[in-house]
Task: structure prediction
Amino acid sequence: MNKPMSRIYVALIAGCLSSVALAQAADPSATPTHADKKAAKEQSKADKKSDVAQAKANKSKTDAQTDADKAAADAKEKDAKKE
Result:
């Protein structure tokens, strides 16, 4: 292959690669669509509901532990009074 032809091929390949890179950078699917925004909003709502449910469960567990601790303290107090 002669030098002028190889330079042309190199230039064509470089041009193709740069246009592919530019097309990927300007990909319209990178911008969020209406469906993407709606899905994100629904996910946010689900996350909030999950957080509330977890907080309620934690409060219930804490309340049960407090009641158990109080019952144990009352039992110790009764045992102390017997002695």
Notes: The radius of gyration is 34 Å. Residues 73 and 79 are 10 Å apart (CA to CA).
